[in-house]
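quick q for whoever's on today - can somebody do inverse folding on this one?? i tried earlier but teh output was garbage lol. tokens:
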């Protein structure tokens, strides 16, 4: 089918058909004209109209019946009804059956042009929505669901099953695995996709600010509250709210969130009455919520309310078959964005990527590919991995190893080696590995990790910074 806007005219009056053909053609549209409803329905596959003009009074099957059958076949196509009478009952019934406009004969040319303009805008909007939806889905399948990993297939199945419901979803997994992408995919495939998607990072604000951010406040609720402020839940009404790092929410605020989940109601700070919202909640966490419930930092009743459907996103190291596809995608994306031409990575780099255990997951991989594209070479990233003492690289059998040359041991020149320096370097590598593994075991709960390592919280933060363990987190 060509891209020209197509109009189907249905009218039993030959004079009207000729007039409409001439008028519509002058506007640059392609026109098809038929005398009755049966003929129109029989030619839909051939005409594939973008808009239909339909006379109310037709021989045999009348205009309203034709309208009903047209909307069954082509529900998205606008139908402009034409009538010389324009009785109120007929207009109401036509609108009930899905007519987009109702014009009385004789109509002004401008009226018809306006009706067609609305149809054009609707078609353009629909095509843009489909394009964005297709792009979102293709990116998701590549970034998140690519490869043959059985866990990713299970995630795809869950997403497709729950997307078009209003059920609460809890997305779990390490930082950088793509939890927000899962949430956005559920939203894009839901019947709320044309409504707002509002993201809130629960770890980014202190508890008092997070409460006003989520639920808003009334004028005078506290010092500095000079006017009413709507909260994120109100902005997400009829849409979806994504609560990232939900485990970091203060228990007192968790109680207010529980009320929204149970009753769909909350009150603004300083407000008297309750506000009702229809908002779907998707939450995400990289912490072990069961342990958080056990130690009292997370409400058990909220946990069960959130944990209706759980999507567990595996780390990148558990789905290495996706790495080559992701690399190709990130190369193309960043080449286009930065107007560069690094088309592919060397076999050496891909070998390192396939062995590296990716503590920052997909986010870390994208960052590394982006640096390679911007810098125009791969050496800086390879050196970065090497400087980490190859702590993130594993042999094929999964056992850890130390690269003696990377530690400074040079056996080729017959010269002496600084054993103390090598020992310090080995100790640093071992320390980094232990810290990283404990952080992974605690799902990057720094307080819990510090307790397991028997050091202070501040000492752990310092050592994480010293060992480069903050990137992508």
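ok took a stab at it. sequence:
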């Amino acid at each position: 089918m060509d891209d020209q806007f197509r109009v189907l005219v249905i009218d039993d009056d030959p004079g009207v058909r000729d007039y409409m053909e001439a008028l519509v053609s002058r506007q640059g549209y392609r026109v098809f004209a038929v005398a009755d409803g049966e003929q129109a329905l029989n030619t839909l596959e051939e005409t594939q109209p973008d808009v239909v003009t339909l006379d109310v009074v037709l021989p045999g099957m009348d205009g309203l019946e034709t309208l009903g059958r047209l909307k069954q076949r082509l529900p998205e196509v606008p139908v402009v009804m034409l009538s010389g009478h324009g009785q109120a009952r007929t207009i109401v019934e036509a609108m009930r059956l899905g007519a987009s406009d109702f014009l009385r004969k004789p109509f002004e040319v401008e009226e018809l042009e306006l009706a067609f303009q609305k149809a054009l805008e609707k078609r353009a909007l629909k095509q843009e929505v489909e394009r964005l939806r297709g792009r979102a889905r293709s990116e998701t399948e590549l970034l998140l669901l690519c490869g043959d990993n059985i866990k990713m297939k299970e995630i795809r199945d869950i997403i497709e099953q729950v997307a078009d419901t209003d059920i609460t979803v809890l997305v779990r997994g390490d930082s950088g695995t793509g939890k927000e992408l899962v949430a956005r995919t559920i939203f894009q495939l839901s019947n709320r996709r044309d409504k707002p998607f509002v993201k809130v990072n629960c770890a980014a604000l202190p508890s008092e600010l997070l409460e006003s951010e989520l639920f808003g406040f009334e004028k005078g609720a506290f010092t500095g509250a000079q006017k009413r402020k709507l909260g994120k839940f109100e902005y997400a009404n009829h849409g979806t709210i994504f609560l990232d790092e939900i485990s970091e929410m203060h228990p007192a605020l968790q109680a207010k969130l529980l009320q929204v989940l149970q009753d769909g109601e909350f009150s603004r700070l300083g407000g008297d009455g309750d506000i009702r919202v229809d908002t779907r909640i998707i939450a995400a966490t990289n912490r072990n919520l069961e342990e958080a419930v056990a130690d009292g930092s997370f409400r058990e009743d909220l946990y069960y309310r959130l944990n209706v459907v759980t999507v567990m996103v595996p780390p990148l190291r558990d789905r290495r078959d996706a790495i080559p596809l992701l690399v190709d995608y990130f190369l193309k994306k960043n080449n286009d964005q930065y107007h560069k031409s690094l088309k592919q990575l060397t076999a050496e780099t891909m070998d390192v990527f396939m062995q590296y255990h990716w503590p920052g997951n997909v986010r870390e991989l994208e960052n590394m590919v982006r640096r390679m594209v911007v810098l125009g070479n791969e050496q800086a990233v390879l050196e970065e991995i090497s400087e980490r003492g190859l702590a993130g690289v594993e042999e094929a059998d999964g056992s850890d190893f130390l690269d003696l040359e990377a530690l400074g041991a040079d056996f080729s020149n017959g010269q002496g080696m600084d054993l103390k320096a090598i020992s310090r370097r080995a100790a640093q590598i071992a320390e980094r590995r232990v810290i990283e593994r404990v952080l992974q075991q605690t799902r990057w709960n720094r307080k819990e990790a510090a307790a397991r390592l028997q050091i202070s919280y501040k000492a752990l933060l310092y050592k994480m910074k010293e060992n480069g363990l903050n990137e992508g987190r």
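fwiw Residues 389-401 have pLDDT under 50 and may be disordered. also Residues 316-401 form a domain with the Helicase, Ruva Protein; domain 3 fold (CATH 1.10.8.60). so keep that in mind when u check it
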